[in-house]
What does this fold into?
Amino acid sequence: MNENIISAASNYLRAYRLGSFKAGENLFRLLQDEKFSNLLKEKIKTGDAESMFVWAGMAALGYNNQITEKQALDFLRTAVSKKHVPSMIELGLLYSSGSLVEKSREKAVEYWKMAKDMGSKEAEVRISFITVSENPNNIEVEKNIKLLINSANNGSVLAQAYLGLCYEKGLGVKENRAISVRYYRQAAQRGNQAAMNSLKRLYDDIRPPDEEFHIFEVD
It folds into this structure.
């Protein structure tokens, strides 16, 4: 099996973390291939950080029960020690959500700052949003909102989805449904499932209650 498949799996995992359910489906299908699992295991034995990231990330998503939670965390920490940026972001996500570890905002930001210092724009966006969402009246909010806007304008689907939420809820900005819809739509068009769901919810909120205005899914 071509070793490039590991890079593809890594990209699927990262895309899933950015909101693409389709990428998660592709990742799950890969795991069903025994040759892929065996290749990952072989690469991990050689100390390959990307393989550790994929194997551990699959465990965190519940796709991989071949390793324990502790082993998954150990793989990610080892990958971080090798300066693997996606593993830094993944550990930050686990601490942010409390998945596999005790929830800790401080730890999450610590790992994202590591990734940011290595040049990760995604980590920078995550830090800005967590700062805005947790303390929207902080003096740093304006700077962080500007960073999110610049990132969204430069194509960050994560920043687009975050700004949709900020404008919907009035986090660090004045509540504005029209702007919220615009950012959600941008993220949704690029496959972000959370943005799609939020966009549908906002449309449902403003749609007249009459049955003729309802949207039905056809099997």
Observations:
- Confidence is low (pLDDT under 50) at residues 212-219.
- The radius of gyration is 19 Å.
